[in-house]
Amino acid sequence: MTQTMSAFLSRTEVWVFALATAAFLALYWAFRGAPIGQAADDEGADAPRAAYRDRVIAAVVVGLLLIVGGAYIALARSLLWSIPVFAIGFGLVLALIVFNQRYRHASPALRRTIDLSNTALTIALVAGILIVINVLAFRYGGRAIDLTRERTFSLESLTNNQLKALDRPVTFTLISGKSPLAALQSERIQQVLDLYKAANPDRIRLETLDPYAEPEKFEAIVKRAPGVAVTQGGGVILIEYGAGEKAAFSVIRNSELFDLPTSGRVEDQAALFESTFHGETAITSALIALREGKKPKIYFTTGHGEPSLNESRPREPGIGVWHARLAATGVDVAELNLIETEVPADASLLVVVGPKSPFRTEEVSKIRGYLDRGSPALMLLGSQEKTGLEEILRSYNIDFGRGTIVDRRLSAPGRPQFVYMPMTPDLRHPIVDSLISRFVLMPSASPIRILGFGGSAPVNTNLKATPLLRSSTFSWAESDLAKRPVEFDQGPDEKGPLTVGVTVSEKPKTEGNREGDKPRTEGNREGDPRLVLFSSSTMADNDLIQEEPINQDLLMNAIAWLRGRPDLQGIAPRTHVSMTLLADPVLRFRLIMVPTVMAVLLVIGLGISTYVARRE
Fold first, then answer.
1. 357 and 348 in contact (C-beta within 8 Å)?
2. Residue 186 sits in a domain of what CATH number?
3. Within this chain, do residues 168 and 257 fall inside the same structural domain, yes or no?
C-alpha cells in the first residue's frame, strides 16, 4: 500500500491537479470575500443574487486557471495543444468581464473580480507577446549579437567560410565522461558545436552519446572509429565527413581542446573552471584535413638531444603537448634521424627544436638540400650552444647576437632570463595578427641580427628577413648571467628592444635588371615562406606551454604560415571561465523555488496593498 501511494504521489499530474485545486480555492476566496461554505458580505440592493455572483467568480477563476494551464502545456507538452486551452480561458474571462461591467458599481465582489481579472489578462497578454517576439527573433532573426567578453557565441570568419563550403554532410558526435571536469568541458564544447550547426544546418548534424547509458551504440562507434576511447575523466569529439561506413572521420580529445592553468580547479560543491579553449582551431583544422583527404607530414629532427615528441607530462622534458595539438589539427608528425635518411620528399615542413649537440656535416648538407628546393622550415634555436646550422642561417640573412635577453619588468619572479615578449601592433604579420596585445614566454632567448640592416650587407639578396617578435624597451642582452645582481652594463650588454623572432620569405623575381620591371608570377609567387626562427630553444616545452598557452598558439600560426595555409591562421584561443554550483537536487530546487515564490508573493502583496489603499 505504501509503495502504491508513493508511486501515485510521484506522478507530476497529481501535483499539478493539487496545485490547481489549491489555486482555485485561494482565488475564489480572494474574489468572493469568503471561502466556500461561508456567507459573503452583504452587497447593495442593486447587486445581483449571491448565487449568480458565485457562479461568475467561479467561472472567472476557471478561466484564469485555463490560461495558466495553457502555458504549462506549452512548456511541458506541445505548443499546438496549448493554443485552444489558452484561447478558451482567455475568451471566457474576457466575456465575463464585458458582460458584468454593469454590476461593477453595485457589487464590490464583482468589481474586485473584474479589476483583478483585467490585471491578470493584461499580464498574460504582455507575457504572450514577449514570448512570441522572442521565438520569432530566435527563429527568424538571423545571427545573434555576441556581447560576451570572450566572444563565446561567435565563430571566426575563417571557420564560417569553411562551413559554407562543405560539399558533404558532417556529423559531430560528442562523447563525454562522467567526471565533474568532463561535464564542464562538454558544456563548452556543446556551445561551439551549436554554432557550427547554426552556420550550415543543412550539412551539419549534432549527436551526443553517453557510453555508460548506451554501451551498444558506443561499441558500434568504436568498431567504426577505433581511436574513440573515453576515460572516466575525459571525452572526445568524433567528426565524420560524409555518410555511411566509408565516411572519413577524425577524433579530437578533450585534452587537445583545453589548456588548464594551475588555477583551474573543480571541487565537490562549487566549481570555478577556467581554461584556455582551442576548440574552434582544432575542429576547423580537422574539417579541413578531412576535406583534403590527406594528412600533411611534418618531420622533427632527432638524434641531437632534442626534446621528446612522446613525452607530455608537464614536469618532464618534452614537447608532447605541442605534438598532441598538431595531431588534433590533422597533421601527421614523425621524427627524422638525418644520419640514417634524407629528408623525405613528402615533407610539408621540417622542424628543428633545441638540439643539444651540433648537426654533422652530412646532416647539414641534407638540410641545405631540403631548403634549396624551396621547402620551409621552423627552428627553435639559441646562441648558447652551437648547432652547426649557423652557416645556413647566415645564408638566410640571419645571425645571432651575443648574450641572453633579460627584462626586470617582464620576467618571471627570480628568473630574469624567463622573459615575456609582447606582441605589439607595430610588428604586423599574419603569424601574430590574431595574438596582438598578448605575451609569449621565451626563456634564455638570444638576440637575432638581420643582415642587411644597420650597415651590414645581406648574404642572399633573393630572401627577405622580417622581424616578427621583439623584447620590450626595458630589456637588454646580458653577457654574464652569473653576476649578482643582474644589471645592464653599458659596454658588453646590448640595450633592447631586441629581435627574438624572424620570418624569411622570398623576394619577387623580375624579368630583368631594369628598374620598374614587374615581378614574375609563374613558379615563384611573391613572398613565399621559407623560414621562421625563434631564439628560445625551450619555448615549446610542456611546462612552458602549460604556464603560457600563447606559446603554442604562436607556433601553430607559424606552421600555418610556412605551409601557406592562411585558412588555419587567425583563430585566437579564448579563455573560458565557468562558475558552476554542484548541489544535490533538493538544494537546487530550493535555490530556484524560494526566490521565485518570494517574488510572486511580493508582487501579490504589493497588489493587495494598492487595492486596500485605493479602497480606503
1. no
2. 3.40.30.10
3. yes
Look at residue 491 and tell me whether its pLDDT is greater than 70.
yes
User: d(Cα 520, Cα 525) in Å, to the nearest integer?
Assistant: 7
On whether residue 318 sits in a domain, the answer given is no
Which residues constitute the domain of residue 39? 2-141
> 397 and 531 in contact (C-beta within 8 Å)?
no
Question: 497: cis peptide before it, omega within 30°?
Answer: yes
For residue 418, which phi and psi values (nearest 5 degrees)?
-90, 85
Same domain, 268 and 347: no
d(CA 475, CA 498): 8
Q: Cβ(92)–Cβ(56) under 8 Å? A: no
Q: Widest CA span of the chain, in angstroms?
A: 118
3-state secondary structure 255-306: HHCEECCCCCEECCCEEEEEEEECHHHHHHHHHHHHHHCCCCEEEEECCCCC
Block residue for cell numbers 465582489: 109
| The length of the chain, given as a count of residues | 616
Q: Which of 408, 160, 405, 427 is nearest to 284 (CA)?
A: 160
Within 304-389, residue ranges assigned H as helices are: 320-328, 361-372
pLDDT tens figures, 506-565: 987 654 433 333 343 333 345 789 999 999 999 999 888 888 888 988 998 899 899 887
Residues contacting 595, CB < 8 A, separation 6+: none
User: Other C-beta atoms within 10 Å of 267: how many?
Assistant: 10
Enter the C-alpha cell of residue 375: 621547402
Which three cell numbers mark 476?
A: 637588454
Is residue 117 domain-shared with residue 168, that is, in the same domain? Answer: no
Q: How many Å apart are CA 563 and CA 351, to the nearest integer? A: 12
Do 493 and 478 contact (CB within 8 A), yes or no?
Answer: yes
Q: How far apart are CA 114 and CA 97, in angstroms?
A: 6
